What does this fold into?
Amino acid sequence: MSEDLLIQEEEDKRMIQLAYRELRRSIKASSMEQSDQDNIKAAYLLAVDAHSEQRRKSGEPYVLHPIEVARICAVEIGLGPTAIVSAILHDVVEDTPVTIEEIREQFGPRITLIVDGLTKLDGLYNVESPQAENFKKVIRSLLDDVRVVLIKMADRLHNMRTLGSMPRHKQLKIAAETDYIYAPLAHRLGLYQIKTEFQDLIMKVKEVETYDELTVKLKESEAQRSNYVKAFIKPLKKALEEINHPYRITGRPKSIYSIWNKIKTKKVPFEEIYDLFAIRIIIDAPLKKEKQLCWQVYSIVTDVHTPIPERLKDWVTTPKSNGYESLHTTVVGPKGRYVEVQIRSERMDDIAERGFAAHWKYKGVKEQHDVYDKWLDSVREILDSSGTDAVEFLNDFKTNLFNEEVYVYTPNGDMRILPKGATALDFAFDIHSDVGYHCTSIKVNNKLVPMGYKLNSGDQVTVVTNKSQRPSEGWLKMVVTGKARSKIRSAMKEERRKQGELGLESLQRKLKNLKVDFEESVEALVKFFKYPNRGELYYDIAHNNFQLSEIKENFNIEAGKLILKPVEEELIEEKTEELALKKRPRKNKRKTQLMIDGSTDEYEYQLATCCNPLQGDSVFAYLSATSGLKVHRTNCPNATNLMAKYGYRVMKAEWISNANDSFVADLLIAGVDSGPGVIEQLTSNITNLGLNIRSFYIDGDQGYFEGKISLLIANKDQLNIVIRALKNLEGISSVTRQEA
Ligand code: MN
It folds into this structure.
């Protein structure tokens, strides 16, 4: 071995030991049973050995990753030894020759179950979306042991934190996936801190410039902010001390993502946002006095600073559906600025920050609202109902389990919680599947409503049923909950099965005539005509969508069997991968503007019309199922959804500088219509800049107007110049580029 390699090896060893020591320090090994300590050590040794040949993209030894994931589990999520061992081993079966059986032998069934849940499925080459399949697997294992999903979160968090060494298009793909599923899941599980960090890290990838700009601004204003917090807290201190319970006050800045969100929705610059932080008062209260003490603190705060009554939110009396408990109010602080104040107990704070993980700690301590049990029930329901289609599962999962809720009432006054967007018909199925099946009409607050009526919190819902009523296909469009959908789907399936019986009978007759074996022949037909199952074939026969004559057109009969006729060459060709990339040379002479996957002339592509990318925008190419390569902006909302599910179709795209082209950019403009001339000024300004307007739409109301201008633009720099110029015009209050 050369000297360089030896030095490298020593250095690796040192780094690994350092990381492990850090992990041991952080889990306070002393409070752990000796057997747990031994297990952690054994897992560590196994992982170091198994991963010894691998490196991360950054060049570091791979094993640093599982060690760090274990540390996140222990310190940031608060999990115990079983999870720590599983986290250390989480990539071993997937990436190294170690088998799940070896894990079972050494670490027993529980850890094996968790590690298995975290191991990606093998051989997913012929499925629509490997990402969806793997996600479904994680969710399924979550029902056996919740730690699977918590470790998965830690894994994703570490990967997001170390995204920097990945190529750009991979960064985008991973960020999109995190955006689509992991951040909302973290929210749903009440892992507030992790969710917030996810959002920031996603933004860091997708909105590089804005992220950097806000980071700098936040840092610059730090001193000023902390002085303000001091001034706000000072007059409260005496009264708080008189309560005679230990308390903490923090004035933490809000996340970059949430500040950016505010800038976008409120359309104000950074400098005009004053609630960049929230004051949090955490009181160490005994369980029985929590609520009372929170309100006492509220009263102290509002004695000093004037409250804005509409902003009071009481999540102490009625916790949020993800278990969050806290009292929120907004008050007018020094200099007349609005300040949000959050009041809660230590226990509430623990649950607020660590959600699901902390939930178990307090189980039994306080009568929990069974928030997670309920959630897990619905997860189970969706898993059971979505059949084998993983993409369908992913969609159901997203609509049902991430949304906020509405609270509605039965005629008896019982409260039912349904996801936001749920309809009257969803309510019927939520009461009981029989009520859903036989529902004929629905009244909300004593008025008849359509079955697809979207429920609002506080609605009182009455369902009228009739035994002869039955679900129809159209009902699927009137529900959003997994439960209702699955019940309707299975009712439809049952209906199809009944109708298919006729088809089955004619097929039996036909095959008997042909003197071939029934079982074998049906299998051959299903396979050849690509039916998902026999039932569908029977159904099509019953409805004349499948002609029995097709059997003899495609098959010969030999020795009581259906034998496929030899296929002509051309037919085979037609069947090759529809999705295959169009690698033919570009026919038209238009100069290419982009380099796709490192090549300038190999691929045909189109600029996506949803987000209209222009030269200089951060972009990527996406291979769509039907219309070839599309180039999207990295912050296009449509693209996030696509990348999250079909990340393998993402390709790198880079602008070629100086391509002489023009692009469409849509600007949203708002302002005060201070008499004639504003619009004239706008247009003349744009023309003076040498630009062409493609379309102009404007809508005014009581002196205020909003409009959209489509411009032909050369690149992003030019666009920024236009935006700045238009913003400076009198009467114009905001100019922003439309995102999609
Ligand atoms: Mn991993």
